[in-house]
Design goal:
This protein has about 550 residues and is of the alpha/beta class. About 50% of the residues lie in helices and about 10% in strands. The protein has 24 helices and 13 strands. The strands form three sheets. The protein has a six-stranded mixed beta sheet, with helices on both faces. Strand 3 and strand 4 form a beta hairpin. The structure holds 6-O-phosphono-beta-D-fructofuranose (F6P). The site of 6-O-phosphono-beta-D-fructofuranose has 15 residues, from loops.
Length: about 550
């Protein structure tokens, strides 16, 4: 057993979890009228109600004790002060510096990084303003109205999610498009709808070595040069966002048109850096800075709030409770409204690439459950698709319900319907519907005894499914910034308890390496005998149908 699972607090939590199994959320609410008020809070413009989680005061006290024994707040302070907490890559973890609006210096290796952060923000503002004011024009003298971001993973998911979320804040006439997948239809479909004279391509890659991004960027470059018949047009229509100036230059983008960031920004935490350029081009630099303000407000809360009031700490500890003690294998992200429909995919990378680890910081195998499978989809659509399993399946599935109260698109009574559905689902998942109630309802509807006997059990919903509800007044840049950072720090807290490096991602390298080994064999020649039997047989199918 590991030191963590042997520790008295961990053991106490295990015992508490075993005892807690008999409690139903329905009873916890009935027995404790103060529960909703006690387990709700407002931080940085977000109203968060976690009273429908399977917790009581003892759970929280034990989790708080676990946080103390695991040194979570010490690790938090180490992150904020630029210590190299990403030990497997020997890097600081300083996405918080990107939205540090306090004027406080932050040092890495003795250098204050804030002047460089501010300089890149100024560079982004200069470019965004020039584009919007028609001072930066395309090679044919046209204004650039369509921004195509070519990137993948953290160089795609954040800007894409935020641009969708804040579409109501778009600068008039600006459109944002995203190419990520190496599947050829991705780049082809996006470019097919665009006028090259009015298109700006942002090639976004932290490393500038990512196979998919470079292939798609080459395709976009060929498209632009072919359409405009002018190789020099690239200078006006292509910019890069990267930490790798050499590779940007080798690709043929002038490094004067490059927006830098730094190795202490993890890809999945990079939307606040120049990786956010498409956001600034789409909603304006003022909008982007409002996003940073919201993010900073949540940072400051996390950095300074007392443990009992510290929302990311609390939610991160409850994530540990659900995964490691109650046995939940997944976390469902359920934004209500289409603007946040990409949030589940964004949080999938943020959480799963961070906390999908099975070796601890000391290099030892882990003997407890770490990060959950994160998934989800927008409500109300999901209600008509996968919620059935939440209501009547056999698995414990904690979920987060998220919504803006007011809409930027008032149409009929839809917004009221949206919110009533959100509330109904959190209630239904919590309360369920027992056999006695089902029987009574069927009797009242005139069902026969035989019908009741045959069907009633099938109508029972067990309830007791935990959820957290996050509401904010409107989809503003500040609210979205605070929301994303709430999750970032939750992930940090859980990772700190689990004693893992939440900021590396060695697991994704194996697949990249194997894809490189397989590439020459795809469609080129008959199977080679170099790979396993299944792969060889699949290669031969591909070879047969290649032309
Ligand atoms: O393959 C995983 C990953 O390294 C992510 O961590 C990263 O966000 C993504 O690829 C893209 O990397 P880059 O920005 O260097 O192209």
């Amino acid at each position: 057993m590991s030191a963590l699972t042997q520790s008295p607090t961990w053991q106490a939590l295990l015992q508490h979890a075993a005892e807690f199994r008999v409690h139903h959320l329905r009873d916890l609410f009935a027995e404790d009228p103060g529960r909703a008020a006690r387990y709700s809070t407002q931080v940085a413009g977000l109203w968060v109600d976690y009273s429908k989680q399977r917790i009581n005061d003892r759970t929280l006290a034990l989790l708080d004790a676990l946080a103390v024994t695991r040194g979570v707040l010490t690790r938090r302070d180490a992150m904020f002060s630029g210590e190299k907490i990403n030990t497997t890559e020997n890097r600081a973890v300083l996405h918080v510096a990107l939205r540090n609006r306090s004027g406080r210096p932050i040092f890495v290796d003795g250098d204050n990084v804030m002047p460089a952060v501010d300089a890149v923000l100024a560079q982004m503002r200069g470019f965004a303003d020039a584009l919007h004011e028609g001072r930066w024009l395309g090679a044919t003298g046209e204004r650039l109205t369509d921004v195509v971001n070519i990137g993948i993973g953290g160089s795609d998911l954040g800007p894409r999610m935020i641009c969708d979320a804040l579409a109501s804040h778009a600068v008039a006439g600006m459109r944002a498009h995203f190419v990520s997948n190496v599947a050829p239809s991705d780049v082809a479909t996006v470019l097919a709808g665009l006028d090259p004279r009015r298109t700006l391509v942002v090639v976004a890659s932290k490393t500038f070595t990512t196979q998919e991004t470079l292939a798609n960027a080459q395709a976009a470059r060929r498209w632009l040069v072919d359409q405009l018949g002018d190789e020099t047009a690239v200078a006006k229509h292509f910019v890069a966002v990267s930490t790798n100036a050499e590779a940007v230059s080798a690709f043929g983008i002038d490094t004067r048109n490059m927006f830098p960031f730094w190795d202490w920004v993890g890809g999945r935490y990079s939307l606040w850096s120049s990786i956010g350029l498409p956001i600034a081009l789409y909603i304006g630099m003022d909008g982007f800075e409002r996003l940073l303000e919201g993010a900073h407000a949540m940072d400051e809360h996390f950095r300074t709030a007392a443990p009992a009031d510290n929302l990311p700490l609390r939610l991160g500890l409850m994530d540990v409770w659900n995964s490691s003690f109650l046995g939940a294998e997944t976390l469902a992200i359920l934004p209500y409204g289409t603007r946040l429909h990409r949030l589940p995919a964004y949080l999938q990378q943020a959480s799963m690439e961070s906390n999908g680890k099975s070796v601890d910081l000391d290099g030892a195998r882990i003997d407890y459950a770490t990060g959950p499978v994160v998934w989800g989809g927008a409500g109300t659509n999901g209600q008509h698709a996968f919620y059935q399993l939440l209501h009547q399946g056999t698995r414990l599935i904690p979920s987060d319900f998220i919504a803006a109260v007011r809409t930027h698109s008032p149409v009929g009574t839809q917004q009221a319907m949206l919110l009533s559905n959100l509330l109904a689902q959190t209630r239904a998942l919590m309360l369920g519907r027992d056999l006695a109630t089902v029987t009574q309802e069927m009797q009242a509807a005139g069902a026969s005894a035989a019908m009741i006997a045959a069907v009633a059990q099938h109508r029972v919903c067990h309830g007791n499914q935990p959820s957290t509800t996050i509401l904010f007044p409107q989809m503003t840049p500040e609210a979205v910034g605070a929301l994303v950072v709430l999750y970032e720090h939750r992930i940090f807290v859980a990772g700190a308890i689990w004693h893992i490096d939440s900021y590396d991602q060695w697991g994704v390298e194996l697949g990249k390496q194997m894809a490189g080994e397989l590439l020459p064999s795809v469609g080129q020649r008959p199977p080679t005998g170099r790979f396993d039997a299944s792969t060889e047989s699949l290669l031969s199918i591909i070879h047969q149908h290649w032309i």
